[in-house]
């Protein structure tokens, strides 16, 4: 299978490397000239491409000559402004309309969901007006407007390996969100889900939440990952009530029957 990955970052690079190892022909884009050699060393055909939001770089037609395109570019909403990512997607859609690409996977985020103090499912956010991140919801709709087969994967907070929850709160005092449930997903499971979808075309043209089925509290997750890696435990203000959401992965379980490697964020694999 010819697979192209737009965005070979923390998720895209190991995904590409695994796909190469399984015998697929993989092209990968990066915005870093220095990273081209890294991709080449992993037998990923490297391309320097950017969406600024206009497409820049040479090789867009070559990237889009594929069976499957994985769109994995972080929206960076705070840095680039609320409309930037949707503008990126509009330009990409124009490139894709007449391209040979047959299928597209868009890596979205559970940040599309507002904190409704309950479990949320895919149908809770369909339109930008329903979303806590309207530009992401708009980007999802743009992907769905393509003539190609599509998948929208709303990933939870990506964790695993050197992304250790305690790293981000070590030594902090009086945190108020300790009782908020987490919506995390291990990187290995995102890669596993994508590979499972590649083998199951009958369940495409849908939006799926990609989140670990279990939702311990932030306090539990932070404290569990402190001692093993030498981080100073944070302290919490008890009794604080904060808005929350519990993102359901039931649709993924029902339709794909994916066996999670790490269903409980308290048992994620980390490495310093």
TrEMBL record:
GO terms assigned for molecular function: aldehyde dehydrogenase (NAD+) activity
Residue ranges the record marks as coiled coil: none
Q: Where is the NAD(P)-binding domain?
A: 9-201
Entry superkingdom = Bacteria
Look up the record and report any one GO term of the cellular component aspect.
Answer: cytoplasm
Which regions span the lipid bilayer? Answer: none
Pfam families per the record?
A: NAD_binding_10
**InterPro entries from the xrefs?**
NAD(P)-bd_dom, NAD(P)-bd_dom_sf, NAD(P)-dependent_oxidoreduct
Tell me the protein's name: SDR family NAD(P)-dependent oxidoreductase
| Species of the source | Runella aurantiaca
């Amino acid at each position: 299978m010819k697979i192209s990955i737009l965005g070979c970052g923390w998720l895209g690079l190991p995904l590409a490397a695994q796909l190469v190892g399984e015998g697929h022909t993989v092209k990968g884009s990066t915005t870093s000239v220095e990273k081209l050699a890294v991709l080449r060393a992993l037998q990923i055909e490297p391309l320097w491409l950017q969406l600024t939001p206009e497409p820049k770089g040479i090789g867009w037609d070559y990237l889009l000559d594929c069976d499957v395109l994985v769109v994995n570019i972080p929206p960076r909403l705070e840095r680039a402004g609320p409309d930037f990512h949707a503008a990126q997607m509009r330009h990409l859609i124009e490139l894709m309309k007449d391209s040979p690409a047959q299928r597209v996977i868009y890596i979205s985020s559970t940040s599309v969901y507002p904190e409704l103090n309950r479990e949320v499912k895919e149908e809770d956010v369909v339109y930008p007006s329903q979303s806590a991140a309207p530009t992401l919801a708009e980007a999802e709709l743009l992907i769905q407007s393509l003539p190609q087969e599509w998948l929208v994967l709303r990933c939870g907070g990506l964790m695993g390996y050197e992304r250790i929850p305690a790293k981000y709160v070590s030594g902090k005092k009086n945190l108020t969100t300790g009782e908020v449930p987490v919506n995390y997903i291990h990187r290995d499971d995102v890669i596993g889900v994508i590979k499972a979808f590649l083998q199951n075309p009958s369940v495409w043209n849908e939006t799926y939440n990609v989140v670990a089925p279990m939702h311990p509290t932030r306090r539990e997750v932070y404290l569990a990952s402190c001692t093993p890696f030498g981080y100073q435990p944070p302290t919490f203000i008890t009794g604080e009530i904060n808005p929350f959401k519990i993102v359901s992965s039931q649709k993924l379980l029902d339709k794909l029957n994916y066996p999670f490697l790490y269903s409980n964020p308290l048992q994620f694999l980390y490495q310093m």
